[in-house]
């Protein structure tokens, strides 16, 4: 794993190739129009953690490695996490599983309870999928809060060697490459989109004292990089004084909306992203700083480059919430949405005037949470240069209603209860009849130690594109396509990548000649 770029699998290179390569193609081959869901299954056993052992983030273990009690170790170690391998599921749009692609742990793993990881995004040309992980082993502790090489924070309590984050790119035939990077030291890289050899990624950095070092503040927010190069660059204008406790940010700063300077490095704690009309958009919906809302990165129609990264502005979309996170602001001159009730995660544009926002909810395990007016799928419509919230789709999500899954994972057999709180990652498709099919991964609330470890769901809904009122959409309802198994979590959702027509025809002809095309449907 010394090379920054590694090959995940063999592939067919032209019509010629070894039998092993052809068998790999037979084992996994995406069908255009299907869905892909990123998942992870817990792999720890009792011996993975020993009661009384010193934990990397501090304190000693109070529970062994068996699921789900292992997460009780978050009490002594606030940075506690444990890695697991990654699997991509291919499903039809009705939820029938077609195939699975296991990502080798030698390539990338995920932090099992980290709910903001493993978002799936299609590249700008739609030909590859990408997601983020870690260059670490399975059942490693606290890697999601580790330092990265070149961005060492001496105040980070996680006492392990630096761990690189990883951008994984998967092609239509299951062939994938992974590129290690040094972004988001002290925290996690959450989503990544590839455009050619360039990637745009979002996440959060820092797990140490305040003020955070300069090389941590410039390691957060939107980062741009080149596949094969571990170094990334912060996208956004530098604000404030380097090294200051408050106000030092790269990108958005709350001072641009008239608020006092915030904790350095935390106004740009982003987690969702999309590219639409050659423009990058990102979201913030968690943390105690900044504004939980949707942002535009740079000018419309122009993606940032390494050359323009330092001069790129990051601004809140007009009409979207501008209230400070974790604070209720009542000044009516600021915005109509000065509230803590917005928690944006995934975003998807149906067209230039229709934006769907997956709202995660606040994660508070109370029955009143089911009454949150914004948890679920928000529909925003652009009119007169300003975005307006048309309505929020919630029917069929059963917000706050508990469900239970039972089963066995490794050495643990039991049942696990959780309830849907809102939605995280999101994708969609506009139909010729004027409707929109939308697919999303749910967030959860529960009494369990770490809600990121809750088994969640894949849901779908059809909306009428022209509708602009809740009354018009009253008959629309979500359908559950998949519920995670005991010890499993669902993370990202996307449509399958689509190859270039010429290469698709050649590749398909080669497989047909060998008799190796997998027949998925009758």
Strand content: 25-35%
Q: How many individual helices?
A: 3
Structural class: mainly beta
What is the residue-mean pLDDT, rounded to a whole number? 88
Counted beta strands? 30
Which strand order spans the largest sheet, edge to edge or round the barrel? 1-10-9-8-7
User: What form results from the Cα inertia axes?
Assistant: globular
Which stretches are low in confidence, meaning pLDDT under 50 for 5 or more residues running? 1-26, 328-339, 502-522
What is the helix content? Answer: under 10%
How far from one another are the termini?
42 Å
Characterization of this structure:
The protein has 522 residues and is mostly beta strands. It has a domain at 1-220 and 498-517. The protein is 5% helix and 35% strand. The protein is built from three helices and 30 strands. It has helices at residues 19-27, 214-217, 501-514; strands at residues 5-7, 35-41, 83-84, 86-91, 97-103, 110-111, 121-122, 129-134, 165-170, 176-181, 189-195, 198-203, 221-226, 232-234, 238-239, 249-250, 272-276, 279-284, 293-297, 314-316, 344-351, 354-359, 376-383, 386-393, 402-409, 412-430, 435-445, 457-464, 479-483, 488-495. The strands form eight sheets. The chain has a five-stranded antiparallel beta sheet with strand order 1-10-9-8-7, with no helix packed on it. It has a five-stranded antiparallel beta sheet with strand order 25-26-27-28-29, with no helix packed on it. Strands 5-4-2-30 form a four-stranded antiparallel beta sheet, with no helix packed on it. Strand 9 (165-170) and strand 10 form a beta hairpin. The model is unreliable at 1-26, 328-339 and 502-522 (pLDDT under 50).
């Amino acid at each position: 794993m010394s090379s920054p770029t590694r090959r995940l699998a063999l592939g067919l290179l032209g019509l010629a190739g070894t039998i092993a390569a052809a068998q790999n193609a037979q084992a996994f081959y995406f069908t255009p129009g299907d869905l892909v869901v990123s998942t992870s299954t817990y792999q720890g056993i009792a011996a993975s953690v020993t009661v009384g052992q010193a934990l990397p983030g501090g304190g000693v273990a109070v529970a062994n490695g068996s699921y789900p009690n292992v997460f009780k170790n978050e009490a002594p170690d606030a940075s506690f996490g444990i890695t697991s391998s990654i699997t991509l599921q291919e499903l039809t749009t009705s939820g029938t599983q077609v195939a699975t692609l296991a990502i080798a742990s030698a390539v990338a793993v995920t932090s099992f309870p980290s709910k903001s990881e493993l978002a799936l995004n299609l590249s700008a040309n739609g030909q590859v999928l990408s997601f983020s992980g870690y260059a670490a082993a399975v059942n490693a502790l606290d890697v999601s809060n580790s330092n990265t090489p070149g961005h060492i924070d001496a105040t980070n309590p996680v006492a392990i060697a630096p761990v690189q984050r990883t951008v994984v790119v998967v092609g239509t035939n299951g062939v994938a490459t992974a590129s290690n990077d040094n972004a988001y030291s002290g925290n996690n890289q959450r989503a990544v989109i590839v455009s050619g050899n360039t990637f745009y990624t979002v996440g959060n950095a820092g797990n140490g004292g305040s003020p955070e070092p300069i090389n941590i503040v410039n390691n957060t927010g939107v980062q741009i990089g080149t596949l094969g190069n571990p170094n990334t660059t912060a996208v956004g204008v530098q604000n404030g004084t380097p090294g200051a406790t408050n106000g030092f940010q790269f990108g958005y700063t709350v001072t641009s909306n008239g608020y006092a300077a915030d904790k350095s490095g935390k106004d740009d704690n982003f987690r969702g992203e999309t590219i639409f009309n050659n423009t990058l958009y990102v979201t913030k919906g968690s943390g105690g700083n900044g504004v939980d809302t949707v942002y535009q990165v740079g000018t419309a129609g122009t993606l940032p480059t390494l050359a323009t990264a330092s001069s790129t502005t990051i601004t809140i979309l007009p009409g979207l919430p501008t209230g400070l996170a974790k604070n209720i602001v009542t000044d009516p001159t600021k915005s109509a949405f000065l509230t803590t009730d917005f928690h944006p995660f995934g975003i998807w544009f149906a067209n230039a005037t229709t934006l769907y926002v997956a709202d995660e909810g606040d994660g508070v395990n109370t029955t009143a949470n089911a009454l949150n007016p914004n948890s679920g799928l928000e529909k925003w419509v652009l009119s007169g240069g300003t975005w307006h919230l048309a309505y929020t789709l919630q029917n069929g999500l059963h917000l706050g209603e508990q469900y239970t899954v039972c089963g066995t994972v490794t050495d643990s057999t039991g049942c696990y209860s959780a309830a849907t709180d809102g939605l995280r990652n999101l994708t969609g498709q506009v139909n010729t009849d004027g409707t929109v099919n939308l697919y999303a991964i749910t967030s959860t609330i529960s009494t369990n130690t770490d809600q990121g470890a809750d088994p969640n769901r894949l849901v779908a809904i059809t909306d009428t594109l022209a509708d602009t009122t809740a009354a018009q959409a009253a008959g629309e309802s979500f359908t559950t396509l998949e519920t995670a198994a005991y010890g499993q979590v669902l993370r990202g959702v996307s449509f399958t990548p689509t190859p270039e027509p010429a290469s698709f025809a050649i590749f398909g002809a080669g497989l047909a000649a060998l008799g190796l095309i997998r027949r998925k449907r009758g």
